[in-house]
Amino acid sequence: MDYIDLSATDMAIAAILILVNGALSVVLKLGLERQLLVAAVRTVVQLLAIGYILGWVFESAYWYVVLPLMCLMTLIAGFSAAGRGKRTYAGQLLDSIVSVWLSCWLIAAIGLYAVIGVRPWYEPQYAIPILGMILGNCLTGVSLGMDRMTQELISGRNTIETILALGGTRWEAAQSSARQAVRAGMMPTLNQMTVVGIVSLPGMMTGQVLAGQSPTDAVRYQIVIMFLIASASALGTVCAVLLTFRRVFSRQHRFMAGRLVMRK
């Protein structure tokens, strides 16, 4: 079966389905009508914009065009990860960007150069989609990890200060909170890996199949992508949790709980 192009009419019909969400919000008095409208408009505008941008980038295919776009994507992911938690602290944005940047670019580089063998590495057909998928999942892990870490530290403050008062090190006091935070950050990816191919068909695999690619070839690519995503999410979450730990515990083994403040 040949690839089927979608017309503006087809997209309009699909958009009408959003009215179901709006109707449910009205009937159940959820008050989400405005948010649904804004989200729907942003979806259309953002995807159309990135479609035109990627079309131009794919035609250019120069490293000085691809690299700035990849940097912009990473910065946006870092900002997004830092802005989701209930609590924040001075330096959280920098920690978030560093965690996302280091983990995603390292894993993406391994995937593009060593696994898939893309030459040159900045080939936009591969570099941008793969980095984008890694960033999208990694930012979730980083965000959940940082949020859980701050919550665990506040809720367990008495225990932490008791351990420190008895002569324990800052890591001995924080390690339980850190483990819980890393576990929370990795859980979405682990859940996704558990049901992939059984309950859900991932976007990359679906897109390749719809484009006419062999299902077995699409599966091989999806397996690689899932492993890259899992690695980046784990590495990013651990990095974010450790950076948070260093921000709120001094070298003198004091817990500086006052640095953790509720987000306005």
Strand content: under 5%
Mean pLDDT: 90
Helix- and strand-based class?
Answer: mainly alpha
- What share of residues is helical? over 70%
Instruction: Please give the alpha-carbon distance between the first and last residues.
Output: 53 Å
Order of helices and strands: HHHHEHHHHHHE
Shape: globular
Strand order of the largest sheet: 1-2
Low-pLDDT runs of 5+ residues are none
- Annotation, overall tally of beta strands: 2
| Rg calculated over all Cα atoms | 22 Å
Total helices: the number is 10
Q: How would a textbook summarize the main sheet?
A: 2 strands, antiparallel
Structure commentary:
The protein has about 260 residues and is mainly α. A two-stranded antiparallel ribbon has the order 1-2. Helix 8 runs antiparallel to helix 10. The longest helix has about 35 residues.
Q: Gist?
A:
Helix content is 76%, strand content 2%. By secondary structure, the protein is mostly helical.
List key phrases describing it:
264 residues, mainly alpha, two-stranded antiparallel sheet, 10 helices
Helix/strand layout:
Layout lengths: L7 H9 L1 H10 L5 H28 L2 H20 L4 E2 L3 H25 L7 H32 L1 H9 L4 H26 L7 H8 L4 H34 L12 E2 L2
Antiparallel strand pairs: 1-2
Helix pairs in contact: 2-3, 4-5, 4-6, 5-6, 5-10, 6-8, 6-10, 7-8, 8-10, 9-10
